[in-house]
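Problem 12. The chain below contains 323 residues. Write out its predicted structure in token notation.
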Amino acid sequence: MRIFVTGGSGYLGRNLIRRLVADGYDVVALARSDASAQAVEMLGAMAARGDILDRQSLVTGMAGCAGLVHAAADTGHAIHEPDQHATNLNGTRNVFTAAREAGIGRAVHISTEAVLLSGKPLMDATEAQPYPARFAGSYSASKAAAEQMALGLSSPAMPIIAVRPRFVWGRDDTTALPQLIAAARSGKLAWIAGGTYLTSTTHIDNAVEGIVLALMHGKAGEAYFIADEERSTFRSFVSRLLEAAGVEAPDKTVPRMVVRAVVTIGSTIERLTSGAIAAPIGAQEYGTVGVEVTLNTDKARRELGYRPIISVNEGMLTVVPAV
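Solution.
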């Protein structure tokens, strides 16, 4: 099977390509730039120049492919994200309509637990939980719209499955860990209410395992949570992650009521200035890291045969010390 991947030069995409190539698949990865093309080719994929906002380049690149994994997205968590909705919603529409035109037979849309985030705790969430009436921020709103768009385009001719990992981490992390390291080193990282609330996480190997299983066994129009076996308090997990990277975790804590006030005031200022003045912590960020977010993976275990292939303890050994 030849599989087309968007977002192939990103953190999740790179590791997905490695796994697919190792499993014997031919992989074609969308590349917007020479640097992206070089990155995916070094992983063993063939680069197809194009953009998710250019449908014709997608149709051309997908020729001869039987499967698709759509991992490209604008993951910004700022309040003022003027292009995020266009990228995440319109880009998703282009990807799956192009896939239908190219004759692709099965597809996976990489979603996120953020489609359910409202700023309130999300405890042992299942896929049956409805989207919130009000989203935590632009990222949640745009990804929820994209997921609904993708699953709405699912058909017997081209089943589309959504995979929802949470807090992807591990080797080769170019997303969450660099931001945590920068915040810790600058003294800006503090534990909200002591950081004692629980969180689900997803090691990159477990995320990729879930995606591959969804591509093979996922039911059309369905979404699946993917996460590590273990749950931890947010503070203990992030502290272990920082320590694995050779960075000292902070002791500083901030009362929840203070953080909520900062979110409210900062978000208002950022919105009024169209992003010229950024909030210290926005509503999307708070909803993502400031409250409990735990996921129930029973559906993925039952329908996909999903089992985490690496533990949190083992995963910590894959984290490379920061320079």
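Discussion. Residues 2-173+201-228+296-310 form a domain with the Rossmann fold fold (CATH 3.40.50.720). Students who got a different answer should revisit the alignment rule from Section 12.3.
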